[in-house]
TrEMBL record:
<dbReference type="InterPro" id="IPR025110">
    <property type="entry name" value="AMP-bd_C"/>
</dbReference>
<protein>
    <recommendedName>
        <fullName>acetate--CoA ligase</fullName>
        <ecNumber>6.2.1.1</ecNumber>
    </recommendedName>
</protein>
<keyword id="KW-0007">Acetylation</keyword>
<feature type="domain" description="AMP-binding enzyme C-terminal">
    <location>
        <begin position="473"/>
        <end position="551"/>
    </location>
</feature>
<dbReference type="GO" id="GO:0005524">
    <property type="term" value="F:ATP binding"/>
</dbReference>
<keyword id="KW-0436">Ligase</keyword>
<dbReference type="GO" id="GO:0005829">
    <property type="term" value="C:cytosol"/>
</dbReference>
<keyword id="KW-0067">ATP-binding</keyword>
<dbReference type="InterPro" id="IPR045851">
    <property type="entry name" value="AMP-bd_C_sf"/>
</dbReference>
<dbReference type="InterPro" id="IPR000873">
    <property type="entry name" value="AMP-dep_synth/lig_dom"/>
</dbReference>
<feature type="domain" description="AMP-dependent synthetase/ligase">
    <location>
        <begin position="58"/>
        <end position="417"/>
    </location>
</feature>
<keyword id="KW-0547">Nucleotide-binding</keyword>
<dbReference type="GO" id="GO:0003987">
    <property type="term" value="F:acetate-CoA ligase activity"/>
</dbReference>
<dbReference type="Pfam" id="PF00501">
    <property type="entry name" value="AMP-binding"/>
</dbReference>
<dbReference type="InterPro" id="IPR020845">
    <property type="entry name" value="AMP-binding_CS"/>
</dbReference>
<dbReference type="InterPro" id="IPR042099">
    <property type="entry name" value="ANL_N_sf"/>
</dbReference>
<comment type="similarity">
    <text>Belongs to the ATP-dependent AMP-binding enzyme family.</text>
</comment>
C-alpha cells in the first residue's frame, strides 16, 4: 500500500507545468491564473465569449473548433462558425425575451446543434441545463419542473417525453431537426436561426452570475440541481492547461456526453477556453468506432472513463488490429475508480499511462489528479491541484493521519465550487457542515507522500459505468409498479461497470414471483425513468429489512448481497 512505483511510464506530456509539484504548490496563487484573462481588467465575463469570440477577435477565427462525426454526419466548424451560430441562437432567445438568469434546458443527443445552442444560451446570460437523451418522462419532468426552465431545445424524436401540460413555466420549445407548432410555442430551430442576425453583443456578467445546472443524485430525495456560476471558467482554463496538458496544436477528445458534468466542463469549456480543436463523436460506444475516431482525427489528448477503458480492454487485441493510435500523447480518466489492472493494460496497448482524475458535479472541475509528468501510483487518484487543499477528516472535522480512512474533504472555496443547490439550501449546507471544508461524500485515505486513495462512497449513491444513480429515485419509480409493495435499491459490485443497480422487492398480495415479472418491472423503470437507472438484477423477498420508523435499511441489503455481517441492527423493526 502506498509505495512508489518506480517503473513509471511518463506518458508524452509536453507541458512542464508541474515539473516540480511541491514548488508549484508553494508558490501557487489563483490571482496569477486570473491574470491570464482579459476579464481580469474589465471585471465582466461571459463564458461563451471567452471560449469562442475571444479567439475570433484575437485572429484565430479560422482555426477548427469542432470536429463532429456520427454514422451519418461528418462536419467541421471553426471558431468563427461557432461564433456565428451561437450569436444567431442568442438573438432568437432575445426575440422571445429570454435572457439573464433564465434557465434554458437542452434535451438531445450529441450533435453540433447541441453545442451551438448551449453557447447561444450562455451568450445571452441564460443558464444552460443539459439533459441526457436517455431520460424518460419522469426524469425529464422532475428536472424541468424543479429548475423552472422557461425554454427547451430538443428534437422531434424526444418531444413526446416532455409533458408540456404539467410544466406551466416552460414557455418555448425549439425543435432541432424539423417541425413546428407555433400556436403551442413549438418553434423550428433552423428557421428561427436563419432569420436571426449573426451579430450579437453578449450579456456581460459578473463572476457570480449563473452558468450551468447539472442534476445529480444523492442517496435521499429527488435529483439535486447543482448550480454553477461564471467564475468556474478560471478552473476550467487552468486545469485544461495543467491537467489535460492542452497546447495550441492539440486535437482533444472527451468522450463524455454534456448531460454529465464532464461533457461540459471538459467537453466544452476547458478545450475551447484553451482554444484547441475539440472532437465530438455522436452515437453509441463501439471499440472499433472509437479507435477509428482517434485515428481519423489524429487525437492527441483523450479523456474517458474507467468503464469505457474496461470495455476496450475486454474487446481484446482484435479491436486494435490495423488502427494507428500513435497520435495519442496524453490519456485521462474520470468518474469511477481506475483499476491498476486497467492502467497496466493501458501501458501496454497505448504505450503510456492513463491518468486518473477525481472530481464531482458539485466541484465543477478537477481537484485531485495525476498530472502529466508526475509519478503515478496505480490505484491512486493522484494529488491535489496546486491551489487546492484536500484532507481526510473524521465525522467531527478532525484531520486524520496518513493511511487512515475518513471523509475526503476540500478546503473552501475554489473557483469552480458550486454556487448552490437549486431550491434546496438545506442540501447545499450539508456539504459544508464542517466550517471551512467541503465534504465530498467519498471516503479515502492519504498516503505519506500526499497521494489520495479512493475507498468508496459514504452514502448509498450508486456509481454504475460512471453514472451517479440515486437509489431513492429508482425506488420511487419501482413502487409505482402495481406489483411492487416495497423496494430497496443498492449498488452491486460488477467487474465491467463498477457497480450495477440491484433491487430487492417485496410483492403485493396476489403477485407471484417469476422471471417475466422481473423483466417487466425492470422495463417499467427503463421506460419511465431511464435505461441506466433500471435494475439489472432483481431479487424478490417476502419482507425487506426496515427501521422501526419504516425506512428500508439499504445497508442490510448490501450486507446480504456481499454476504457480510449486517452490523448494528438495534433499530431494525423485528
Ligand atoms: C466518483 C464525476 C474514484 C466519486 C466528474 C465521486 C471517482 C463521484 C473518481 C462523482 C475517481 C469520480 N476515482 N471515484 N477518479 N471520479 N468518482 O458527480 O464517488 O458524476 O463522488 O462527477 O464519482 O460523480 P459525478
Amino acid at each position: 500500500m502506498g509505495q512508489v512505483h518506480h517503473h513509471v511510464l511518463p506518458g508524452r506530456a509536453r507541458n512542464p507545468n508541474l515539473a516540480d509539484y511541491d514548488q508549484a504548490v508553494t508558490h501557487f496563487k489563483w490571482e496569477d491564473v486570473e491574470r491570464n484573462f482579459t476579464w481580469y481588467d474589465t471585471g465582466k465575463v461571459n463564458m461563451a465569449y471567452e471560449a469562442v469570440d475571444r479567439h475570433v477577435r484575437e485572429g484565430r477565427g479560422e482555426k477548427t473548433a469542432l470536429l463532429y462525426s456520427d454514422s451519418t454526419r461528418d462536419e467541421s466548424y471553426t471558431f468563427a462558425d461557432l461564433q456565428e451560430k451561437s450569436n444567431r441562437f442568442g438573438n432568437v432567445l432575445r426575440k422571445y425575451r429570454i435572457g439573464k438568469g433564465d434557465r434554458v434546458f437542452l434535451f438531445m443527443p450529441r450533435q453540433p446543434e447541441l453545442y451551438f445552442s448551449l453557447l447561444g444560451i450562455l451568450k445571452v446570460g441564460a443558464v444552460a441545463g443539459p439533459l441526457f437523451e436517455a431520460f424518460m418522462e419522469t426524469a425529464v419532468k422532475d428536472r424541468l419542473e424543479d429548475s423552472g426552465a422557461v425554454a427547451l431545445v430538443t428534437t422531434p424524436e424526444l418531444l413526446h417525453r416532455v409533458k408540456r401540460e404539467e410544466l406551466p413555466e416552460l414557455r418555448y420549445i425549439f425543435l432541432v431537426g424539423g417541425g413546428s407548432d407555433p400556436e403551442n410555442y413549438v418553434l423550428d430551430y433552423e428557421t428561427e436561426c436563419a432569420s436571426a442576425s449573426e451579430e450579437l453583443e453578449p450579456e456581460w456578467l459578473g463572476l457570480e452570475d449563473g452558468l450551468i445546472m447539472h442534476y445529480t443524485s444523492g442517496s435521499t430525495g429527488k435529483p439535486k440541481g447543482v448550480y454553477h456560476v461564471q467564475r468556474a471558467m478560471i478552473q476550467h482554463y487552468y486545469s485544461g492547461k495543467v491537467v489535460l496538458d492542452l497546447l495550441d496544436d492539440d486535437i482533444y477528445w472527451c468522450t463524455a456526453d454534456p448531460g454529465w458534468v464532464t461533457g461540459t466542463s471538459y467537453g466544452i469549456f476547458a478545450p475551447w477556453l484553451c482554444g484547441v480543436t475539440n472532437v465530438v463523436r455522436g452515437g453509441r460506444f463501439s471499440p472499433r468506432d472509437w479507435y477509428q475516431t482517434i485515428e481519423r482525427n489524429k487525437v492527441t489528448v483523450w479523456y474517458s472513463a474507467p468503464t469505457a477503458f474496461r470495455m476496450l480492454m475486454s474487446a481484446g487485441t482484435e479491436s486494435l488490429k490495423g488502427v494507428d493510435l500513435s497520435s495519442l500523447r496524453h490519456i485521462l480518466s474520470v468518474g469511477e475508480p481506475l483499476n491498476p489492472e486497467v492502467i497496466r493494460w493501458g501501458d501496454k496497448v497505448y504505450s503510456q499511462r492513463i491518468h486518473d482524475t477525481w472530481w464531482m458535479t458539485e466541484t465543477g472541475g478537477q481537484l485531485i489528479c495525476n498530472f502529466p509528468g508526475m509519478d503515478i501510483k496505480p490505484g491512486s487518484m493522484g494529488r491535489p491541484l496546486p491551489g487546492i487543499k484536500a484532507t481526510i477528516l473524521d465525522d467531527k472535522g478532525n484531520k486524520l493521519p496518513p493511511y487512515t480512512m475518513g471523509n475526503l474533504a476540500i478546503q473552501t472555496p475554489w473557483p469552480s465550487m458550486m454556487d448552490r443547490i437549486w431550491n434546496n439550501s438545506a442540501k447545499y449546507e450539508e456539504y459544508f457542515r464542517i466550517p471551512g471544508w467541503y465534504i465530498s461524500g467519498d471516503s479515502a485515505y492519504m498516503d505519506d507522500e500526499g497521494y489520495f486513495w479512493f475507498q468508496g462512497r459514504v452514502d448509498d449513491v450508486i456509481n454504475s459505468a460512471g453514472e451517479r444513480i440515486g437509489p431513492f429515485e429508482v425506488e420511487s419509480k419501482l413502487i409505482e409498479h402495481p406489483a411492487v409493495a416495497e423496494a430497496g435499491v443498492i449498488g452491486k459490485p460488477d467487474t465491467l461497470r463498477g457497480e450495477i443497480v440491484k433491487a430487492f422487492i417485496s410483492l403485493r398480495q396476489g403477485y407471484i414471483p417469476s422471471p417475466e415479472l422481473k423483466a417487466e418491472i425492470a422495463s417499467f423503470v427503463r421506460s419511465g425513468l431511464s435505461a441506466h437507472a433500471a435494475p439489472r438484477e432483481i431479487e424478490f423477498k417476502d419482507k425487506l429489512p426496515k427501521t422501526r420508523s419504516g425506512k428500508i435499511m439499504r445497508r442490510v441489503l448490501k450486507a446480504w448481497e456481499l454476504q457480510l455481517p449486517a452490523g448494528d441492527l438495534s433499530t431494525i423493526e423485528d
